[in-house]
Amino acid sequence: MAGACSGKVLTSGKKPFLDEDDIQKFPYFKAVIKETLRLYPPAPLLVPRETREKVTIDGYEIPAKTMIYVNAWAIHRDPGAWEEAEEFIPERFLNSTVDLRGQDFCFIPFGAGRRMCPGLNMAFATLDVVLANLLCSFDWELPEGMKSEDIDTEALPGLSQHKKNPLCVLAKCQM
Ligand code: HEM
């Protein structure tokens, strides 16, 4: 990722920070964010719904006034929808039209339909820019003796996902 911005954008002295326009030129960076949201959706069960009337889906009869939880976490890891579903492979999004705006029901980190997340655009405007600038401003390393396989991705139980154990990384100033 460092290679994405180690060129003139940051070093020419004209532009100390990356902005949204710069980030549009980093498709792999965007794919990494998508793949992270696929495997670790912050709201794995979305927001609960209630059926207004009796419906039948795939032969299952669901009575009116049933509380419905949509398990986005399980949908995102469905081997019927994703190749090597449990693996972190950002490349899967590079030549793919699958997007997270609620049109592709296999990938719904912001939900779908009328109650989908209204903060999607704001989330992206901040997440992309903050993360890209953090990556470009420092050299990141794991603490001595720790390998990338040792990174603990376990989450605490709850309606929103929080890391069980904090990630410890070293940010080194670039010379
Ligand atoms: C990466 C960041 C975010 C993720 C992954 C996320 C995800 C979600 C999800 C999954 C839902 C439920 C949608 C559904 O059930 O269909 C939701 C709802 C909501 N989100 Fe976000 N969200 C994010 C950021 C934000 C931000 C930045 C805001 C506000 C500035 C926001 C405001 C809301 C609100 C108000 C709702 C409730 C909408 C409703 O029930 O009508 N979210 N979000």
Topology:
Layout (H helix, E strand, L loop, with lengths): L1 H4 L2 H4 L8 H4 L3 H13 L9 E2 L4 E3 L2 E3 L4 E2 L3 H5 L43 H18 E4 L28 E4 L2
Antiparallel strand pairs: 1-4, 2-3, 5-6
The protein binds protoporphyrin IX containing FE (HEM).
Describe this structure in words.
The chain has 175 residues and is α+β, with helices and mostly antiparallel strands. The protein has a single domain, classed as Orthogonal Bundle (Cytochrome p450). The chain contains 6 helices and 6 strands; from the N terminus they run H-H-H-H-E-E-E-E-H-H-E-E. It has helices at residues 2-5, 8-11, 20-23, 27-39, 72-76, 120-137, and strands at residues 49-50, 55-57, 60-62, 67-68, 138-141, 170-173. It has a two-stranded antiparallel ribbon with strand order 1-4. Strands 2-3 form a two-stranded antiparallel sheet. The longest helix has 18 residues, at 120-137. The radius of gyration is 19 Å and the shape is globular. It starts with a helix and ends with a strand. The chain binds protoporphyrin IX containing FE (HEM).
Strand order of the largest sheet: 1-4
Poorly predicted runs: 1-9
Secondary structure: helix percent: 25-40%
- Rg calc: 19 Å
Class inferred from helices and paired strands: alpha+beta
- Shape call: globular
* E-strand count: 6
Small molecules bound in the structure, each named once = protoporphyrin IX containing FE
- By CATH, the architecture is named Orthogonal Bundle
Number of domains: 1
The CATH class designation is Mainly Alpha
Number of contiguous helices: 6
CATH superfamily: Cytochrome P450
What is the rounded distance between the termini? 17 Å
Strand content: 5-15%
- Could you tell me the CATH topology label: Cytochrome p450
What's the helix-strand series?
Answer: HHHHEEEEHHEE
